[in-house]
Amino acid sequence: MFKTKYWLLGIFLLTLFVRLILAFYLPNFSYESYFYLRQVEHISTSGLPLYQDSLSYGGRELVFLPLFYYLMAFFDLLFPLEIVAKIIPNLLLSTLTLIIFYISKKINANEIGALLAASVAGFLPILYSTNSFNPDTLFLPLVFLAIYFFMNFDNKNKIYMYLYLLILLLLCLTSSATFLLLVGFGFYLALSKLEGKKINNYELELMLFSLFFYLWTQFLFFKAVLLEEGINFIWQNVPSAIILNYFPKISLIQAIILVSVIPFLTGIFAVYRSLFELKKQKAFLLISLVISTTLMAWFRLIPFKLSLSFFGLILAVFFASFYEEVQAYLNKMKLLSLDKYLLSIVIIVLILSTLIPAILTALKQDLPSNEEVEAFRWLRDNSPKNSGVIALLEEGNLITYYSQRKNIIDDQFMRVKDVDKRFADLNSLYNTKFQTHALSLLDEYKYSYLVLTPKAKQKYDLVNFDYLSPECFERVYKNETRIYKAVCSLEAVKS
To answer: Where does residue 374 rank: exposed (0-12), middle (13-18), buried (19+ CB within 10 A)?
Structure first.
């Protein structure tokens, strides 16, 4: 046990070291991160979330769960936010190695297998968005901690119940995706019933309490959204033209690449064995979570990346079961020579199938360049404060964070009634060849600045806007990123 603790600590520190090296090597943060950074800054200075945002969509009301922002604002009081945003999320995700180890050990009681499961969890490629600053980095460790406490709870030792309830409270204040756990409970009850496994009354009571407590907290925060958007609340009001990008159906090839081939295949095998042959009740909860996550991702009820992250971590737990079964098989067949080298072979295979793909995934993150960031900063210092700026949907948060100006659209779609129209108008401003059409849209929104970044050029296959003319558009920022200011209106063109 003494050596196991040191190995586990080593895996945790290695995971954290690799993640931090990649986070600080790569410049800037992912595009969506700038919304969360802005919220943390506002809480740090005012003590309150920015629920009334005068810049996003030109002015709108926001609603979100606050725990992640307040936690990061606390660290922001102690250290620079840029340092906090790179260290704390990666530290939180690194703790998954510890949590997965203890969940695996609970199911299999095999310490070597549990250590290997922790290694898989530490280097899942899908989790290597090292420069992403968002609530999922807190949600994932919390939800697996809740699973661990639930699995350990019994009527004699109630400390785990209190710990579970504390984590449930934190989860309900962090992410609405907590319903993944609750749906998993539903499948757990169904599977246990089908297999004739007894569910203790205290487990059932805890699951029912979790459901009602979750519904109550979400109703407190999102009552107005639910009344306004109805069933569209589930899909977060994402524009219909891009909903497939947010909730794509998972292809087998994508899942294997992002979860990594060895954990994926061995995990699926171990799930099958646990469900249909070994019938371990301790594994039923995790199997239920696999089923619920897969179904909800298939029906586009949860974002693609979150579903695969959840799925991959559960398969990491089952990797310990797979290792235990292979070891037992080799002993049964008296293949002691192979058993002697099994651990070394597994470690080499995991390095090739998880560590290397994880690093490559991190290096391919979609991040704004320093030059693009500098262009948006230039707008802050060289444009009127009430200006509106046109840029890509992905760049909307860069406008509000760096430029501190109004955008036409960003990735916070909830409670925006004309989101489909705005998205269509944005595409028109990049695609149209007609100056009158472009000017009519700029007049409608009362925006005067257009930004053409290298990312926008690639996305729309543009060299430049097709409708520019010296009489109506002045190039005010001359660099790889181009910024134009509209200096006339549609009425002036007509006259």
So the answer is: middle
Residues 462-478, buried b or exposed e (16+ Cβ, 10 A)? eeebebbeeebbeebbe
The residue among 136, 119, 151 whose CA lies nearest residue 310 is 136
3 state DSSP class of 451: strand
Q: For residue 315, give both structure tokens.
A: 């398969």
CB of 187 closer than 8 Å to CB of 284 = no
148, 102 in Cβ contact below 8 A? Answer: yes
pLDDT at residue 242, as a whole number: 67
DSSP SS3 for 432? coil
CA 434/CA 488 separation, integer angstroms: 15
DSSP state of 479: S
- Burial-class residue 205 by CB neighbours within 10 Å (0-12, 13-18, 19+): exposed
Closest by CA to 29, choosing from 94, 70, 88, is 88
In this prediction, residue 253 carries a pLDDT of 64
What's the CA gap between 309 and 65, in Å, rounded?
21
The residue assigned the tokens 């709870």 is: 153
Cβ atoms within 10 Å, residue 429: 20
pLDDT at 75: 96
Q: Write the CB contacts of 204 (distance below 8 Å, at least 6 apart in sequence).
A: 189
pLDDT at position 352? 81
Q: Rounded distance, CA 432 to CA 243, Å? A: 23
**245-270 pLDDT tens trace:** 655 555 666 666 666 666 666 666 66
CA distance 307 to 300: 10
Could you tell me which of 418, 433, 363, 438 has the C-alpha nearest to residue 130? 363
Taking alpha carbons only, the member of 312, 256, 395, 275 closest to residue 127 is 312
- Residue 278 neighbours by CB under 8 Å, 6+ apart: none
On the question of pLDDT at 338 being above 90, the answer is no
C-alpha separations of 173 from 66, 208, 406 in Å: 6, 18, 29
Alpha-carbon separation of residue 282 from 188, 286, 289, 408, 415 (angstroms): 10, 8, 12, 50, 41
Give the number of other CB atoms < 10 A from CB of residue 398: 27
171-198 pLDDT, tens per residue? 999 998 898 899 989 888 888 887 777 7
